[in-house]
Amino acid sequence: MRIEPLFMLQGYEVPAHPFSSQLEEDVIDAVSTGVQAEYQQLAQQRIIGMECPVHHQSAQISLISVVYSKADEAIEGEYQVETCCEAFKAVVLDSLTLQ
Ligand SMILES: [Zn+2]
Fold it and tell me: Which of 10, 58, 61, 93 has minimal Cβ neighbours within 10 Å of its Cβ?
């Protein structure tokens, strides 16, 4: 038995393969855009209340990009972290590392 992937498009079932590469890209795009907001939020939550013990400043995080890696089937976020000093930056980066 052969399993034919089907997509539902506006109520119609259509074979997926003629569209698969384009759809795959669209889906990955959509997922990336969706998780981008989520990642940003997640990152912010992780550093809420974190403050440099020396300078009493909080860190600023901005998400640069979310990349879907086909090989790993994983989504990776890339952050830019701004802090008052390198020591605090290391602490923040450490807590942002997603396990
Ligand atoms: Zn500092």
Answer: 10
